[in-house]
Input
Amino acid sequence: MKLLEERIRKDGKVYAGDVLKVDSFLNHQIDVDFLCEVGKEFYHIYKDCGVNKILTVEASGIGVACLTAQYFHCPAVFAKKSKTSNIGNDFWSAKAHSYTHGTDNTLIVSKSYLGKGDRVLILDDFLANGCAATAMAELCEQAGAAVVGVGAVIEKAYQKGGDALRKSGFRVESLARIASMSPEDGIRFCE
Amino acid sequence: MKLLEERIRKDGKVYAGDVLKVDSFLNHQIDVDFLCEVGKEFYHIYKDCGVNKILTVEASGIGVACLTAQYFHCPAVFAKKSKTSNIGNDFWSAKAHSYTHGTDNTLIVSKSYLGKGDRVLILDDFLANGCAATAMAELCEQAGAAVVGVGAVIEKAYQKGGDALRKSGFRVESLARIASMSPEDGIRFCE
Output
């Protein structure tokens, strides 16, 4: 998605330690009009797949998921990273390590909101090592739901997550794929 | 908002301990088409207030904030509950106690995304004791931003938060105001 690559070049900041900061428009301040365009793009890609649910994980996936779901006219469900007091005891759960935050999380989705017959599009802001997306796919497997695709706004294509998911048979589509990046040389996108 | 009251009556579940579970459409599974209607209602209420930014707090406020912001054509910013590795060191912060989760949180917003000249609409899924909204108003005060209103999807009007904020001079608008609720007697809305 050309518009996204341009936006990342313009507003993204690369720091040591493999950090791409895009929190001016994607995951702290959210440029909602721009993310609507992102949502339309995901809809364009997956519109013929019978998607009836979008699954993401709190917190930074929620904006992308909601603004995309409106084009599919389907609900968005966000996996929680901890068991809140009001989720009840009936939930699917899968472990995911977060390299960004250096923590292990257990992703949780109530059994009421993910089940057989669901055709799920998994969405997230970033795809890097693939831990979160893999855990969400596990939640879908537990639930007997079909994963029709995995969509990421930005993929760090030099990390293993995207290709591992593709090898496992998932249709992974990322709107911007970064081939390499560094504070010195900036960002190079995949051809 | 009649449509919302009907939805709460239909799908909301009241549990002991002052819990109203609306996670089938509001804060775990999100009925995005429905929340677009909620967003239009907030736009209708605050459209003449020069809103240029919507502020909420992760995680359950993000859906409401994003789906509302698209009608204002302004960005949504979500306060974080913990300092993530990539937020930097330049942020506003304010303490908020969460009665739902029994934790104290420090809400954080990067100084880059909240400042002088901003006209902020604070939005959240629930308004009860008002801790989160008050903390967000504090963030705005620190930043020198104007708070043009505080909007909640559901207000527990029998708790003190909404009226305390109104007494402090904020324009608080809740789309459904609950006068009382209990597992035995169900939900009664304010007239």
Remarks:
- Chain B touches chain A at residues 15, 19, 21, 23-25, 28-33, 35-36, 58-59, 62-63, 65-67, 69-70, 73-78, 80, 84-87, 100-102, 109-110, 112-113 (CB under 8 Å).
